[in-house]
Write a structure and sequence with these properties.
Elements: H1 3-27, E1 37-46, E2 54-64, E3 71-73, E4 80-83, E5 87-92, E6 95-99, E7 105-106, E8 112-113, E9 119-120, E10 137-139, E11 144-147, E12 150-154, E13 157-160, E14 167-168, E15 174-175, E16 180-182, E17 187-190, E18 192-194, H2 200-236
Antiparallel strand pairs: 1-2, 3-18, 4-17, 5-6, 5-9, 5-13, 7-8, 10-11, 11-12, 13-16, 14-15
Helix pairs in contact: 1-2
Length: about 240
C-alpha cells in the first residue's frame, strides 16, 4: 500500500473513533450530570532525506467538555447542582471520583450516597451523615449542610488540578490523576439537578459530517484497490 493509502487508513480510524464518541454523547443527552466528549485530531509527519514524506492523521486525544449544562428544578431536598466550575466528590471502590450528577439519598446507615451507592464526601473528604429522624435538610449556596437548623458540615466541591487530564471512568464519574483541590467560587443549588451538557443538534450535525467523510475515505480506498488490482493484471499478462 502506498503512502496515500496509509494516510487514508489512519484518517478512517480516527473518524470511526469520533463516530463512537458522538454516538455515546447522543445516547447520554438526557443523563443527569453527563459531560460531552470530543476528539482532537493531530498530524504526524515523518520525512527523511531523499524519501517521500509521510503524513498521518490520528485521533489520539479525547477531551471532556466542562461547559455548564442546563439546570432543572426538582424540589428534592437532596438534589443538588453545581453552578459554575467544580464537581461533587464520591468514594468508590476504586478511589475518590468526581461527578456533576447530584441526585443523592441517604443509605441504610444514614450516609449520603449517589444513585450508585457511592458515599458523597464533605469538604474534608469524610462521608456526610443524615440523621434518620431529620425533619428538614437545608444547604446554603456554599454547600453548608444544616439539619433541623443545626449546621452539620459542608458539601465538598472540588476541581481537578489539571482539567486536561480528567479521565472518564463511567458515564458521570471522572478520575483526576493529578489530584484535586477545593473550589470556593462554585455555587451549590439545592432542589436542582444539572442536565447533560450535550447539544443533540450539534452532535447529530457533526455525526453526519463524519459519516460523509468516512464514506469518501472508503470510496478512495476502494478506487485505490481497483487501480492496484488492474495494474497487477496488466503486468502479469
Amino acid at each position: 500500500m502506498d503512502n496515500a493509502g496509509y494516510t487514508t487508513l489512519t484518517r478512517q480510524s480516527g473518524l470511526k473513533r469520533e463516530m463512537n464518541v458522538l454516538a455515546h454523547n447522543i445516547a447520554n443527552a438526557a443523563t443527569t450530570g453527563y459531560r460531552a466528549e470530543g476528539i482532537a485530531f493531530s498530524e504526524f509527519i515523518k520525512s527523511a532525506p531523499g524519501t517521500e514524506s509521510i503524513s498521518m492523521a490520528t485521533a489520539n486525544v479525547q477531551m471532556t467538555s466542562l461547559e455548564q449544562g442546563a439546570l432543572k428544578q426538582t424540589g428534592g431536598s437532596l438534589d443538588f447542582a453545581v453552578e459554575g466550575p467544580g464537581f461533587f466528590m464520591v468514594q468508590t471502590s476504586n478511589g475518590e471520583r468526581l461527578t456533576r450528577a447530584g441526585a443523592f439519598a441517604p443509605n441504610e446507615n444514614g450516609d449520603l450516597v449517589n444513585m450508585d451507592g457511592h458515599l458523597v464526601l464533605d469538604a474534608g473528604g469524610a462521608p456526610i451523615f443524615i440523621p434518620p429522624d431529620a425533619k428538614s435538610v437545608d444547604v446554603s449556596s456554599d454547600g453548608t449542610f444544616s439539619v433541623d437548623g443545626n449546621p452539620l458540615g459542608q458539601l465538598g466541591i472540588y476541581r481537578p488540578i489539571n482539567p486536561l487530564d480528567l479521565k472518564r471512568e463511567t458515564g458521570v464519574l471522572f478520575e483526576a490523576p493529578d489530584g484535586v483541590e477545593p473550589i470556593e467560587e462554585a455555587r451549590v443549588l439545592q432542589g436542582f439537578l444539572e442536565n447533560s451538557n450535550v447539544n443533540p443538534i450539534t452532535q447529530l450535525s457533526r455525526m453526519i459530517e463524519v459519516q460523509r467523510a468516512y464514506e469518501m475515505g472508503q470510496t478512495f480506498l476502494e478506487n485505490e484497490h481497483n487501480r492496484i488490482r488492474d495494474a497487477v493484471k496488466t503486468f502479469v499478462k
